């Protein structure tokens, strides 16, 4: 029962500091007695809810919404925004400071608290949380943001149906890419191999650097939940369509260096993702090609009506 004690002491993925509502729930990914199939039971009333994440995104069912405009990413270009990296026993979490996001049909500015990652077992055993038309990607990065008006109080965030805004980015293996920022980020994994360890991140790379290659104006939107207990249904989800390309050698580091407890004999941190939950309505940018087609059909109809052309 050693795992139970460690799980009870586990640091919450959400909270940037010690305060966290769900650190008493003994949930896990690796053991059938506490893995995600048990969460609806061990972490009711939210994990058994009706607005749960992650979901499979059925791209043909996503409806157009012209309100889904561009975001403004404040300080994503800052090379001092990432302050600390930590092994929580469930993921790798990077604390963010002085970063926020607005636009994108969010109702106010959201303060960026942290990002963390989900993965499988190396680049060949994928572990993204969301899937797209059934496809699972090797990894998924989540930036967790809280309504700025809540002034850093995450307990307010998890109690509000749109209290949090999560930005999800798929990570794909591409050995032709040499990513200095991902090289820098993963270089810290050797310093945090055990659960509970953390280390300061030296200035030098930015969120923009880590997210290179993603057109951040193309995304899916739906209302969902945290993907870890207590699975609070408080999250406005944004999942970006483009992927971040990272060399497979770096992806493989996540599943081979990190332990889930604070001993080197504890299991490796692998398959740290929740399985797909029942579908939710997904929206996306109104397709410009469709509106162009409608426009030309409209012109055609107009010219036919006028007896021209
Ligand atoms: C390791 O974790 C156990 C509980 O899981 C705790 O009692 C112990 O203090 C931790 N040791 C270190 C060195 O952090
Ligand atoms: C999770 O637990 C269920 C039984 O509760 C088991 O069937 C399943 O294989 C487990 N999954 C993993 C990844 O351990
Ligand atoms: C989830 O569990 C709680 C507590 O047992 C219960 O009150 C609630 O009705 C359940 N929700 C659903 C959707 O089953
Ligand atoms: C970040 O972007 C802002 C707005 O475009 C700009 O004013 C600022 O100089 C940039 N900072 C860095 C570190 O590049
Ligand atoms: C968002 O971040 C920018 C840049 O750090 C800052 O000027 C602005 O005040 C922040 N907005 C809110 C609502 O926190
Ligand atoms: C992960 O992959 C390694 C190397 O292929 C393998 O030894 C290990 O059993 C795998 N772990 C799980 C939980 O599948
Ligand atoms: C969520 O918080 C916002 C901002 O404080 C507030 O306007 C809204 O009513 C809240 N929604 C719910 C469901 O509590
Ligand atoms: C990380 O560990 C290496 C040795 O493995 C050490 O040289 C380095 O200073 C450590 N980095 C930090 C930021 O503690
Ligand atoms: Zn996550």
Automatic annotation (TrEMBL):
Required co-factors: Zn(2+)
Domain (Alpha-carbonic anhydrase): residue spans on this chain: 25-288
InterPro entries named in the record: CA_dom (IPR001148), CA_dom_sf (IPR036398), Carbonic_anhydrase_a-class (IPR023561), Carbonic_anhydrase_a-class_CS (IPR018338)
EC number, as in UniProt: 4.2.1.1
Keywords: Glycoprotein, Lyase, Metal-binding, Signal, Zinc
SMART domains membership: Carb_anhydrase
GO cellular component: plasma membrane
GO molecular function, one term: carbonate dehydratase activity
Signal peptide annotation: 1-20
Catalytic activity: hydrogencarbonate + H(+) = CO2 + H2O
Keyword Transmembrane helix recorded: no
Record flagged with keyword 4Fe-4S: no
Transmembrane residue ranges: none
PANTHER family found in the cross-reference section: CARBONIC ANHYDRASE
Function, in words: Reversible hydration of carbon dioxide.
Family: Belongs to the alpha-carbonic anhydrase family.
Protein name, entry field: Carbonic anhydrase
Natural source organism: Sparus aurata (Gilthead sea bream)
Gene: LOC115571564
């Amino acid at each position: 029962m050693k795992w139970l004690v460690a799980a009870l002491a586990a640091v919450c993925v959400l909270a940037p500091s010690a305060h966290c509502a769900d650190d008493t729930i003994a949930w896990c990914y690796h053991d059938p007695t506490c893995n995600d199939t048990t969460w609806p039971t061990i972490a009711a009333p939210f994990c058994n809810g009706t607005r749960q994440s992650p979901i499979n995104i059925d791209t043909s069912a996503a409806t157009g919404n012209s309100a889904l405009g561009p975001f403004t990413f404040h300080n994503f270009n800052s090379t001092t925004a990432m302050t600390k990296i930590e092994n929580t026993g469930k993921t790798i979490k990077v604390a963010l400071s002085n970063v926020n996001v607005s636009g994108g049909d969010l109702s106010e500015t959201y303060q960026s608290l942290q990002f963390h990652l989900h993965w499988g077992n190396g680049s060949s055993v994928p572990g993204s949380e969301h899937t797209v038309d059934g496809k699972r990607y090797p990894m998924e990065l989540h930036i967790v943001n809280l309504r700025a008006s809540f002034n850093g109080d995450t307990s307010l965030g998890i109690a509000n149906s749109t209290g949090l805004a999560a930005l999800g980015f798929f990570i794909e293996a591409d050995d032709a890419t040499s990513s200095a920022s991902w090289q820098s980020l993963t270089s810290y994994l050797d310093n945090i191999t055990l659960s509970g360890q953390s280390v300061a991140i030296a200035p030098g790379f930015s969120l923009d650097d880590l997210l290179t290659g993603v057109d951040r104006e193309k995304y899916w939107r739906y209302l969902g939940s945290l993907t870890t207990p207590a699975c609070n249904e408080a999250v406005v989800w944004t999942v970006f369509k483009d992927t971040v390309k990272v060399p497979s050698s770096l992806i493989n580091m996540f599943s081979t260096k990190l332990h889930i407890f604070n001993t080197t004999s504890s299991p490796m941190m692998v398959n740290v993702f929740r399985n797909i939950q029942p579908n939710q309505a997904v929206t996306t940018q109104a397709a410009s090609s469709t509106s162009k087609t409608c426009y030309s059909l409209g012109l055609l109809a107009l010219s036919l009506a006028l007896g021209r052309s």
